[in-house]
Amino acid sequence: MMIWMIPMLAVEATDLAKANEAMDAIKALEGRWAADTDGDGTLESVVEFEVIANGSAVREIMFPGTEHEMTNMYHLDGTSVRMTHFCAGGNQPSMVAAEVDGEGAIHFAFDRGCNIGETTTYMGDLALTIGEDSIVEAWTSSGPDGAQHHMTFEFARLEPERPTYFVATMSKGPHWDDNVALMDQHGIQDHIEHLEALREAGTLVMAGPWLDTAGGMMIFRASSMDEAHALVASEAVVKAGVVTPSVHQWMVPIHGVDGLKQ
Q1: CA separation (Å) from 11 to 18, 100, 129, 139?
Q2: What is the CATH number of the domain that holds 140?
Q3: From 51's CA, which of 21, 67, 70, 215 has a CA 20 to 30 Å away?
Q4: Are residues 170 and 152 in the same domain?
């Protein structure tokens, strides 16, 4: 009995090692990818990979934000890797990694599924090829009459979106000398609360004093220069003419700066 168990355990250990290697490769896909699906040179089809559940699973969202959005869930199942495809068609075929070649190619074959009837067309096969900065997903669907349809996506990694920072520096405005009366009118408390709301929303990184020397500044996030100007112009002290802002893009990288200084 023990003689037979030793080779079986060795095979299981080898299979588990391959499965862990495959999962590590899939985890490394975390981020955003895109493919040119219509040949116009534009990367319009997007997928997003995210490592979840304390590192035990990977969620792939295909075509996020569209009516065709779908999800693929990858995780270990014993000594294999399982992928369940949550299809926009309302079925959930589940596949196991039938082949893992150790060179970035993983072949998933249909194993079982939910909401798959005699007339259901469903995804039954996925050949996933992982490169350094590329993914090829070759899908095969199976129809009720046995017909198969093939589709292949070649994804390239997208650079992570980096936030754009702006800095607004303040100089004395036309009503600087009247700032006490004007701020009584427009509300210094509203001004502070507005800054705090921007900070809580993740927009404001830092703000300095504006009303003592008019040498204040604020560093904040915005998607464009127009949005940056509009955000600063909405400040009560700017509207009142107490200070005049000058807005520029902040060119120095910001690492972990978060807070509100008054």
Answers
A1: 11, 14, 24, 29
A2: 2.40.128.20
A3: 67
A4: no
